[in-house]
What does this fold into?
Amino acid sequence: MKEIKLLDCTLREAPIGFIGDDNIRKFIGYLEKANIDIIECAFLSTLYNTYHEGSTHFTHVEQIEKFLANKKPNTIYTACFNQSEFDYDSLPEYNGKSVDGLRFVLEKSKLNAAIQRIKEIKDKGYKIFVQHRDTIDYEDYEILKVLEKINNLQPYAYSIVDTYGSTYAEDLEHIISIVQPNLSTDIRWGFHSHNNLTLANANAQGFIRTASKTHNIFIDGSILGCGIGAGNAYTELLAQYLNTKYQGQYKMGTLFDIIDTLMPYFKSKCSWGYTMPNLISGITGSVTTHASCIHDNYHLSSKSLLDVMKGDMDDSKRKVCNNDFALRHYLDYCKKNNIVAIRREQEAVQPKTIKSRIKRKAKKHFPLLFKVLSKTKSVIKKIRDDKIP
It folds into this structure.
């Protein structure tokens, strides 16, 4: 059996704009104490015009340095980015102050361009991880073509990625059967799963059992499966599995501390997990936002949503986040099938909107009366708060 490492990507995967610098530091600190081997603490993108404090969405690696002032020895810190959303020219030489590794999300139509960029990053001293996005979408010969180029480049790691949570055990076994004899054993091999079909942890365990026979491997997870849409494999479950079956040394109590102290904030700001739209996204191999956007904007049954998502849709658009496209696709579907599209009512928003309009007009046309009423309201509130009889 080869070396097995655990990567936590909660900070990168969490569908939340603001976490807070203190919470980010605490999160990284807890993961270090829990002996997590690889900590993914950032997502990099040129789509963000500026970096906002308290976020884990960055534009440059230097912005991450403040969270990594006291790195734990033998722990690897990474950031992830999409191939076409990164400023390669501004990437500094590796100096050990920021992340150690960069996870490069490969785009199928830009393989040749990717090879040159991967080489540039590697030459600057970073550990380069190649994320084989939507691996199941590749024909066998296409996977072999990617592996040939990967072997020539010798990156730090290569990962199979179940981007849309649509990979069954048999699919994963088939992909493994192609990669295992053809990926250099000098390259670490990883797996990143999503939980649309609630198979993320089962597939992760299957990967561990098979891939660890020939390669040094690592497996991705997030605390409570936190991630966009259905989320990911659960770090705490993977840690327990590795402790029980593979002599892992992960501290479950420390992971539970994260769940008890930090994850309530995450839950209050975002949601993830098993829902009908997320399941349907997994069934149809679609980006999770399409089904969720249609469901959130129009009244339709889960059966109808499945029919919509199974309908004619260009694969290049099926797999790219675009809410406008998703809504147009639904309206086109309704038109072709003589269905009346019924928008969801905004009952909770409408009364508040009307009330605010009345308030603004009263303030404009009856300023003195408005002032008296406002003062009276504040006095009444004070009496209630102070519980004065």
Summary: Strands lie at 4-8, 38-44, 57-58, 76-82, 101-105, 127-132, 157-161, 188-192, 217-221. The radius of gyration is 24 Å.
